[in-house]
Amino acid sequence: MIIIDSALKARAAAGNPVKVGMIGAGFMGKGIANQIINSVPGMELVGIFSRGIEAAKQAYLEAGIEEVEIVNTVGELESAIALGKYAVTEDPYLLCRAEGIDALIEVTGAVEFGAHVVTDAIAHRKHVIMMNAELDATIGPILKVYADKAGVILSACDGDQPGVEMNLYRFVKSIGLTPLLCGNIKGLQDPYRNPTTQEGFARRWGQKAHMVTSFADGTKISFEQAIVANATGMKVAKRGMLGYNFTGHVDEMTKMYDVEQLKELGGIVDYVVGAKPSPGVYVFATHDDPKQKHYLDLYKLGEGPLYSFYTPYHLCHFEVPLSVARAVLFQDAVLAPLAAPMVDVITTAKIDLKAGETLDGIGYYMTYGQCENSPIVQQQNLLPIGLAEGCRLKRDIPRDQVLTYDDVELPLGRLADQLRIEQNKYFSPTKTLVGVGV
Questions:
Q1: Architecture per CATH, 343-427
Q2: pTM of structure
């Protein structure tokens, strides 16, 4: 991590900055734009896509860039980059296909749209940094297969909790301990929150109500912990995770877990509500060497068997450019699936649902997400919440019941559904399709 600043300074001194395009110009996208433009020598944000061109312009304007070029073709974008101009566009595929862009940051949180953009970027050999745990948890493993074949990096990002957890996990492993738990600290968890209840908070911080709702109702943390599981080989101890309520410091939680269970599962991902330091992340790990245990006790980490490591913050957009640099300059992914999915996020009824209704999106009124171990998801034919939006219900579903593919009719022609089918086939031990309603 510490070498990144020197590598970027060298690129700046050589007049050869890392060139980045960004897909999305919402709340987080604006923060990323400001960070790259004003705080990251050796990196340039050369183009921004937004569905509405004014949002892309505004992202640049808030970062102090008043002159931008509106581009409508790959040629126009490549010309703008060559001339050192900042480009905005309503066509995301221009950023995927233009020469002169080293990496894309995908920051939409949209699954179907993200699937189209990321596959196109990979096909054109662009590194992709995703601030899109929703997409990653749904079809990340098969996207990683595509990225590997193309010779590019597909990665989640520093700053978001999963990336911070993975940095801490890698550090703990690097000093010889065995991580058994990757955890996320939350301030609130209520599966019945909706955009109406969260409207005031969203307005205060300039965010979208449905996005804030996905944090509050547990769906977002489920996506985040699922991608940590997929990157580490860990599982969940139960559907929905253990999710303790605890108001002390995470250091005090090491006695709350059954170490033998953690070992049997190969480690778990989890979260806690109310603990300190908030909003941080933590890793609990063991060491088998009695000599090293003596040193750990001397260094105030206690007698074990679980030792607590934590990072007391996550700084979101501040750290995203570091992820880009790691991919482009060192071919290092912050966090990416190891292989087959370990944990999925499944669709659960937030209210009593009626036959004939069409499911709304993540963070809205009808559903919330829970983590479940992927073999169970396959065995029970459970519906990933990343694919739930737009599905038509075949039958009534009571509140808190999980949905299966048999409960819904899928929209026709979605790429994300096709990639999910391909993912299931690719990673099936028998290479036969399980579930997905076919």
A1: Alpha-Beta Complex (3.90)
A2: 0.95
